Amino acid sequence: AYSEKVMDHFEHPRNVGEIENPSGVGTVGNAKCGDIMRIYLDIDDNQVIQDVKFKTFGCGAAVATSSMATELVKGKTVEEALGVTNKAVMEALDGLPPVKVHCSLLAEEAIHAALWDYAEKH
Amino acid sequence: AYSEKVMDHFEHPRNVGEIENPSGVGTVGNAKCGDIMRIYLDIDDNQVIQDVKFKTFGCGAAVATSSMATELVKGKTVEEALGVTNKAVMEALDGLPPVKVHCSLLAEEAIHAALWDYAEKH
Ligand code: FES
């Protein structure tokens, strides 16, 4: 039911962890399942995302989309990162079953929350 | 929101993996969130569970309850293992938030399915 890319990012998630003194942090909850996602961003003076880490209690779909989303925003500017949609992340994963689409939204929402947190501080 | 024991079993899950040529396998799905759980049992001639492994795409609550449930049934007889309830697993974890109780049922159902699979073969 899951694509090879989803299984790869689920079994070997990229960028799991925390960043000390991050430029921005975003924490969001999933009302449908009660799961939580947190994303940490390290952004340099040129507004380039140098590092990004995530932690989640969510399911495999949440882990895989967050892993892919962090890969897609790393090295991008803040403005470019705002343009990385959930649709782009799901396409990069070769899709997700419809029942898991709500899980994939956690990553996009947490990245936006972390970018917002950064913007408020700068 | 989660107990220390839940976080410990989520971050360091016990008995993750597969068993080759298992005595019994149980696979169950969670209709509410679309997640899947599979449990493998290795049972000896005295009907004692020598080894147990699990795999899941489920969330942290599913991982933690499966980890604890496999610890509780390991070394037990088939009959004793049938008596390990979801309630006992949750108590051993110092509880779960109400919204995550349905996730914890995956482990109990998968163990019962694996014991049933074993019974059918013997
Ligand atoms: S079921 Fe909660 S994040 Fe997928």
From TrEMBL, chains A, B:
<protein>
    <submittedName>
        <fullName>Fe-S cluster assembly scaffold protein NifU</fullName>
    </submittedName>
</protein>
<feature type="domain" description="NIF system FeS cluster assembly NifU N-terminal">
    <location>
        <begin position="1"/>
        <end position="122"/>
    </location>
</feature>
